[in-house]
Structure formats: structure tokens, C-alpha cells
Amino acid sequence: MRIRRPKPGRFPGVLRGNDRGQALVELALTIPLLMLLVLGAVELARAAYAAVEVTNAAEAAVRYGAQNKTTAKDTAGMQLAAQSDAANITILPFTSTNPSRTCECSDGTEAGSSCTSFSCGDGTATMETLTVTTTANFDTLIHLPGLPSTFTLRGYAVQKVLY
Predict the structure, then answer these.
(1) How many other C-beta atoms can be found within 10 angstroms of the C-beta atom of residue 47?
(2) 125 vs 81, higher pLDDT
(3) Is pLDDT of 113 > 60?
(4) Are the beta carbons of 82 and 57 closer than 8 angstroms?
């Protein structure tokens, strides 16, 4: 009895003689692309995590400052609250314009940032609003030519001060 061998190309599972290294070559060509894709995903996840941390630090600082009139003026305490909340990243020190306070009367009259000498008449209440902006530098793992290797991330939070 004679065994018939299938002709090459007729069946999809049968390799032809010149296709033996093709899978290895394709793998060698696609591994760098896959590694770049995974590295990009890791970098994006790191940036998103750092952005959330910076925003949470701003919220922690504004929560500390909004406790009462005294803590609304305590810039060092707000800085410490921000740095304690974002222990995994370095929150840059507040600038001279941050945190900012604005005062207004409950009838809508604004006084700007001079909350100490501001008083509302006619039985309206004074409301003080505290705004905190945090910043942190984010250093990328991948340094590509033409793109910056460091980005500045900003967090922002606003809350009314309790009296």
C-alpha cells in the first residue's frame, strides 16, 4: 500500500519548505512594537496616578484650611497637609499667590482678598472662600527627542471656610 502525501499549500496546517523561519522572524519584528506599547501604557498609568495624587493633595490642603479663619491663614499647615496626603510624590512648595482667599457677603458683594478689613452690613453674613493650587513635576521614564522629559502637574481645589 502506498501512502499519499498531501501537496504543499493544499492544507493550511502543512508548512512548505521555505516557511520554516517565518514565525520566528515575525516574532522578532513584533516584540519591539509590543514592548513600546506596554512601556507607553505604563507611562500613561504613572502620569494618571501622579495627576490624581496632585489633585488629592490640593483637596487635603483646602480641607485643612477651610476648618476656620485661623487655619485659612496657615499656609505652612496647608503645605504640610498637601505633602502628607501625597507621600508618593513631591508636592512643590506653594507660591506667593497660593493659597488665595476671597471674601464676599451673602448678598453677592465681593471684597477680594482683603478678608481682614471686610465687613458686611444689613445683617448679611460674610463668606470666605479658599482656593488651593498644588503643583508637582512629573519625570517621564522614556525620554524622546523633541518632547519634554518633565511635565508640571497641577491640582486645584476650592472650598468655603467654616465660621
Answers:
(1) 14
(2) 81
(3) no
(4) yes
Q: What is the pLDDT of residue 104?
A: 82
Burial of 75 (0-12, 13-18, 19+ CB in 10 A): middle
Largest CA-CA distance found in the chain, in angstroms, rounded: 114
pLDDT in tens, 117-147: 666 766 667 788 889 998 888 888 888 788 8
Backbone angles phi, psi at 5, to 5 degrees: -95, 140
Q: Which of 55, 53, 100 lies closest to 75 in space, CA to CA? A: 100
Distance CA 79, CA 82 (A): 5
Residue among 47, 37, 57 at smallest CA distance from 150: 47
- Residue boundaries of the structural domains of the chain: 21-160
> What does the mean pLDDT of the chain come to?
82
Residue 110: which residues within 8 A CB-CB, separation 6 or more? 102, 103, 104
Mean pLDDT of 55-83: 89
CB 132 within 8 A of CB 154: no
Task: Answer positive or negative: Cα dihedral of 74, 78, 84, 90.
Answer: negative
